[in-house]
Amino acid sequence: MFSLAGRTALVTGAGQGVGRGIAKVLAAQGARVAVNDVDAARAESTVKELEATGATALAAPFDVTDPAAVRAALERIALQLGPVDILVNNAGIPAGSRGMSKKFIDSDPEDWAALIDINLYGAMHCIRAALPGMVQRGWGRVIQISSGASQRGLNIGVSSYGASKSGIEGLIRHVAVENARTGVTANSIALGLMNNQKNPAATAHIAAGIPMGRLGEPEEAGALCAYLASDESAYVTGQTIHLNGGSITT
Ligand SMILES: NC(=O)c1ccc[n+]([C@@H]2O[C@H](COP(=O)([O-])OP(=O)(O)OC[C@H]3O[C@@H](n4cnc5c(N)ncnc54)[C@H](O)[C@@H]3O)[C@@H](O)[C@H]2O)c1
To answer: I need a labelling partner for 32 at 20 to 30 A (CA). Which of 14, 94, 113, 207 fits?
Structure first.
């Protein structure tokens, strides 16, 4: 079950963290994987890790907020790996992320822009570029990586980030219903706190507040992506699925 053999996947922001874990799992399930990151060296390093397992992978460095770069990359991926069947919009935290630590009352419009750009426009550019081919071929999977901050108010300075994630979840629901008879599904995964190894010292403290007492692993997000990317998930569309160790229950 859940074989992705013969499929081509594009995972954005897959040079590290959650995206890297997703790319690894999709490759292990047999997909050819285009590894995107705005940082080319990071994309290459994920590709090397995938290739070491015998997988077929391609570095696809581009900025998801640049529509011309997105279109050009999708064309190159189609030529080198095959047209994108599975799109995982994972890039969602811009470099610097000034809007990620301030309460809204203290924020400036320029803090908001980078988050809206990557989480709304970046994801929309990738979907807009990949969707027509999926519809034409009668099969496709759009998987949006979101966050529990889309649905829950938090007092940790993530208001603009949460708004951008709420917005893209809304778009995904419409894309799902507009294309429900085409063989293309679209779903969001709302992540809780994940172990991206950026701040191991803080991990134990953060983990204590999670019902399961630990952070999520990138490969656990990858496993849910593998299911949503598979033939077996064909009847699941327009949903936001939570992956969070019990932090938010619905
Ligand atoms: N880490 C968490 O605890 C957590 C929690 C909830 C949701 N998420 C979501 O998971 C996703 C991945 O998070 P992460 O913690 O692994 O992030 P990360 O910052 O560790 O990695 C993101 C990668 O995206 C790349 N990137 C940034 N801007 C880009 C752009 N414009 N175009 C292409 N690539 C770009 C970065 O270079 C980086 O390699 C994001 O959508 C994030 O919102 C993460």
So the answer is: 94
Atom of ligand 1 lying closest to residue 15 CA: 39
pLDDT per residue as tens digits for the range 9-41 = 999 999 999 999 999 999 999 999 999 999 999
Residue type, 108: D
> Which value, in Å, is the radius of gyration of the alpha carbons in the chain?
17
Ligand 1 mean position, distance from CA 18 (Å): 7
pLDDT tier for residue 231 given thresholds of 50, 70 and 90: very high
Strand order in the sheet with 32-37: 57-61, 32-37, 8-11, 86-89, 140-147, 184-191, 240-243
Those residues with Cβ within 8 angstroms of residue 101's Cβ, 6 or more apart along the chain or in another chain? 157
Residue from 11, 18, 20 to probe ligand 1 pocket by mutation (most atoms less than 8 Å from CB): 18
Active centre residues (catalytic): 161
In this structure, the residues whose C-beta lies within 6 A of any atom of ligand 1 are 12-13, 15-19, 36-39, 42, 63-65, 90-95, 118, 122, 145, 147, 191, 193-194, 196
For the stretch 101-148, pLDDT in tens is: 889 999 999 889 999 999 999 999 999 999 999 999 999 999 999 999
